[in-house]
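Tip: read the tokens left to right.
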């Protein structure tokens, strides 16, 4: 190698080294450390861990709390992801047109993304309050939105939908602005309606963006924690029907000090997410069109 090539190689490694170190320290090492810890029983103060092999996984398979949390997490994902994507896509199509106050609408829809989770939870907890909540008073009803085991999970999903719409909206707007206007002009000349243009032009051309949002939102929904932690009280009778895998990980690891069981839950969540992602990757070949 010439001196110039060696110099460029050295500077290249110099610039990417912080990223590599960050990935190893903050991502790769914690992953393997968590997997390793899942085969141990945690000792006092996190020290002197005892190797127990697959015992944590055997207990997890018969633990009703973990089974219920898996079901809760999947129900939340099914409730939140499709609706949040559908609403965001419709709003993005509307805001992509030339309307008065378009920039203001975009800012309003994105505001939940910059709000603190604690503030969001506090506002929604007030809205959901059975006695003096705004929703019950406006509609003159009396519903226990977050203490009724039958509907509490869906109430939490509504918070998730409201919180993520702005993020999805920005991504969809970016995808829509890449669609050539010539297609719509030609379709209009041929007499195609707006609905027909949406399903035959818009959806196929932004399908890669939809797929990206779909994958990232499923991963995000599988990791739901903050809204459950901040809205649901520890004495709430519906907590068992709402707590997710990440919430149970927090409970086992930090409240009960059983970090081996907590690490096992994380590995289970990783495997479930990996399986869903692989299935998505296989299925996307049928409906995602890369141009």
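Filled-in amino acids:
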């Amino acid at each position: 190698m010439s001196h110039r090539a060696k110099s460029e190689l050295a500077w290249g490694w110099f610039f990417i080294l912080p990223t590599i170190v960050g990935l190893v320290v903050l991502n790769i090492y914690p992953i393997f450390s968590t997997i390793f810890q899942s085969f141990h029983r945690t000792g006092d103060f996190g020290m002197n861990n005892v190797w127990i092999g697959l015992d944590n996984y055997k207990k997890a398979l018969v633990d009703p709390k973990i089974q219920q949390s898996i079901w809760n997490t999947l129900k939340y994902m099914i409730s939140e992801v499709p609706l949040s994507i559908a609403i965001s896509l419709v709003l993005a199509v509307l805001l992509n047109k030339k309307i008065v106050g378009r920039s203001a609408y975009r800012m309003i829809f994105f505001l939940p993304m910059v709000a603190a989770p604690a503030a969001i939870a506090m506002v929604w907890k007030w809205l959901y309050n059975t006695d003096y909540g705004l929703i019950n008073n406006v509609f003159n009803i009396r519903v226990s939105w977050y203490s009724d085991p039958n509907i509490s999970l869906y109430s939490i999903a509504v918070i998730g939908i409201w919180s993520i719409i702005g993020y999805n909206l920005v991504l969809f707007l970016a995808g829509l602005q890449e669609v050539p206007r010539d297609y719509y002009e030609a379709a209009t000349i041929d007499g195609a309606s707006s609905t027909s243009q949406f399903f035959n032009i818009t959806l196929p051309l932004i399908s890669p963006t939809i797929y990206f949002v779909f994958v990232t939102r499923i991963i995000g929904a599988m990791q739901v924690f903050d809204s459950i932690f901040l809205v649901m009280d520890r004495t709430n009778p519906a907590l068992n029907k709402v707590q997710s895998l990440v919430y149970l990980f927090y409970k086992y690891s930090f409240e009960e000090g059983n970090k081996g069981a907590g690490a096992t839950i994380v590995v289970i969540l990783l495997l479930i997410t990996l399986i869903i992602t692989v299935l998505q990757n296989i299925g996307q070949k049928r409906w995602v069109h890369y141009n």
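The radius of gyration is 24 Å. The chain has a mean pLDDT of 89.
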